[in-house]
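Archive entry. Fields below.
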Amino acid sequence: MKRWFLVGLVVVLYALHQDFWFWRTAQPLVFGSLPVGVFYHVCYTLAVSLLMWLLVQLAWPSKLEAVETSTAEEEPAP
Amino acid sequence: MIPVLVVFVYLASVLYIGIFAFRRSAQRNKAEDYFLAGRSLGVVVFLLSLFGTNMTAFALLGSSGHAFANGIVTYGLMASSSALIVPLSLFFIGTRMWALGKKYGFMTPVQMFRDRWECGHIGTVITVVQAVLLIPYIVIGVMGGGTTMNAISGGRIPFWVGGAIVAMVVMSYVFFGGMRGTAWVNAFQTTLFLLFGAIALGVIGTGMGGFDKAVSELAASPATSALLTRERVSPLYFFSYTFIPLSSICFPHIIIFCLTAERVQHFKKTVVLYPLCMLAIWLPAVFLGVTANRAVEVPAIRAKLEARSTLATQSATLSPEQKTELRAKAAGDDILVRLLEHYAPLWLVGLLGAGIMAAVMASDSQILALSTMFTEDIFAFYEGKTKFGEAAQVRTGHIFVILITVIAYVIALRWPQSIFDLAVQFAFSGYAALMPLLVGALFWKRSTKWGALAVTLWAAAAVIAIAGFQTVVPAPAPGAEVGWGSLFGQAIVSRTAAGTSVLGFLPVVPMVIVSFVLMMVVSLLTAKPGEATLKRYFANA
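PREDICTED_STRUCTURE:
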């Protein structure tokens, strides 16, 4: 369930990059000088950071951490 | 001369950091120490250096130049798409590659491919294609160095001297410092250009009488209002750009850099903070590029605007030579420097120039990566390490660093194309098409060496085809396109002013899709690796 929720979030965020709704307008100018299309993508970038935080919290591949403890007896590739 | 002096002080600092970092290492003759900093980088250096490694001349000079010509669309095209795709790639692929490197001692992706797919010479083919695709990226750094030095010195330092100075500095600290020196220099540089982006925005904004005024004027003029929207690009073109950042993790210097982290937990902060770093660098660069269209009081910028206007209005009557000359005049790769030299005090121009130099010098990691690939995938694989020993391998790496720098410099002098076009059309698209190699090796048991070979040959052939097509068919005027064939009312292949499109998409889209299809079809038709190998890679094999 958790996995599909996260996959869904990634897909939704990818789709939201294609914001055709602000394609042909610069208005409103947010903070007086930021065209709304750029402001949207600034918010989008912040949302991506939040998504990555969620992935780290909920889907971190913790099994990879086991490799750190076995470094001493590093296994050479055959 | 003050700005030039400040930049030289900066270059001296970078040299000192690179060489000082090398002296800290007691195992300088060990390949793992020279090429991977002994897999011991801490979280702060890892994050800053990884980000700096991804930010080349392209990020500051290319983006502001692209925004100058195309408007705010630049941020959505390149920054916010990378802010999503690059951290996801690091999260899913970078961490797994790190673990395999730590477990089996891999120092390059091809070492892992050879082991995973039980192949030898196919790995060599992959190395060669990766190396050839990486060279244009290194050239960008040299070109950026030449452009910046030339602009900061007011033309007193010619392009070829500026490029040579930057190439020499980079070569020196890579030669002496290896990965440790490169990582520390990159961390220092990233800190600088994160700070300087904000400073440049404030200083230029004040000089221009406030951004509100500049943006209002842009919006009011019919000639420039489109720069504040995305109406100049099609949604298909915009969508295509989300495929470009797939190249990031496939670049050898990025995937090799993933092996330098001391602990896998270092990736946690990196993937969360990466989008914020993108925002901090790209928003000022794009915004300044767009608003530069109102900086008509700057003579150099006024000349660019006039050249652009002539190209747009008199294209039909101009000779190809005149068009090339006007395109060079209108190019915006030095737009940031031109703004700074007009609006900032001299000492600050130098300081900010050093910040720009920090970005253009990111070619260090690519040079080191090429050297690592040559010594590990070619020299060591073909028994050089066995015959001559590890110290000879490291010395070979040193020599290779010099060779590759000289080659990149010579190409930079002879290649007049704009930084941005060069990067996107060849290196980025080619590497994005190599994505199925990493995905197949790490996530799909059934992938085979023949699938990998098909993907590699396809990526190389597609890049050659695009380069050939664009050489044979001259670019039409901006806004126009020459098309061949038709499908659903859309030209199958088109030559545009910026490059090539396939069914309205950038070539990278069909390149990546065909690449994944080839990996699947060819792998399913050929024998998979042995069970013992698969068990080492997939717990449930």
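CURATOR_NOTE: DSSP finds three helices and two strands in chain A.
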